[in-house]
Amino acid sequence: MTKIKLCGNFRVEDAELLNVAKPDMAGMIFAPNHRRTVNIGTAIKIRDRLDDSIPLVGVFMDQPVADIMTIYQSGMIQVVQLHGSETEFDVEILQENNIPVIQVHQPDNFLKPTAADYVLLDAGAGSGQTFDWGMVPPKPLRQQPLMLAGGLTVNNLQQSINKVHPDFVDISSGDEVDGIKNIEKMQALVAIAHANLE
After folding, report:
1. Under DSSP, is residue 34 helix (H, G, I), strand (E, B) or coil?
2. How many beta carbons lie within 10 A of that of residue 73, not counting itself?
3. Residues forming beta bridges with residue 149, ordered by sequence position
4. Phi, psi angle pair for 148, to nearest 5°
5. SS3 of the chain: helix, strand, coil, percent, to 5
6. For residues 100 and 58, what is the distance between their CA atoms, to the nearest angstrom?
7. CATH classification at residue 184
8. What is the pLDDT of residues 91-145, one digit of tens each?
9. What is the pTM of this model?
10. Is the Cβ–Cβ distance between 31 and 51 less than 8 Å?
11. Nearest-CA neighbor of 20 among 45, 43, 47, 54?
12. How far is 31 from 48, CA to CA, in rounded Å?
């Protein structure tokens, strides 16, 4: 099956929706100045309410590695996603501390070497825009598990899976109605992803 991450959770009650939808990962944005950015207090409450079986990913953008490690070591998150101009040295420091890392790449820079545990393809900084999926190299050329993001919705998720064959799909705005997480969309997206057996 294709695994799925539902990201951009920013309300404490989103944890209850995630517990019902049962994605393979959930995500919170710690990068500042985004609509869905969470503060530490909210992040703690979301992790406390979220089912222990759902790993929580913290999304960061050009923030000090020491700050990222502090948040990880608090137990709030189980995976770190680097969505800025972080270097391979940053990735290696995190991994030396046994922190799983998702490194975001632009589609035209997909094959840039990285030691990260996952490579996430996104055309923008969480812009919600799709890109030409034909740019993605086939599985034999991939060195890490691939996560696909960017404008994925219930209307195009199956098409993206058929075209790209990602290991994970990553959805943020595509599970919302009027900017708020919607349980029907969340469940539908998880069902589409999990129906794809490989």
Report:
1. coil
2. 11
3. 170
4. -110, 130
5. 35, 20, 45
6. 11
7. 3.20.20.70
8. 999 999 999 999 998 877 766 788 999 999 987 655 566 778 887 878 877 888 9
9. 0.93
10. no
11. 54
12. 21
Distance from the Cα of residue 11 to its chain's centroid: 17
Q: Which of 3-7, 24-28, 40-44, 133-137 has the lowest mean pLDDT?
A: 133-137
For 153-178, how does the pLDDT look when each residue is reduced to its tens digit (9 = 90+)? 999 999 999 999 999 999 999 999 99
CA–CA dist 119, 5 (Å, integer): 13
Both structure tokens of 141: 């050329």
Domain count across the chain = 1
Tokens of 176: 């919302």
Give residue 8's domain range: 3-194
pLDDT at site 126 = 53
Give the model's pLDDT for residue 175: 97
Residues 143, 113: Cα–Cα separation, whole Å:
8
**Placement of tokens 């899976």 in the chain:** 161
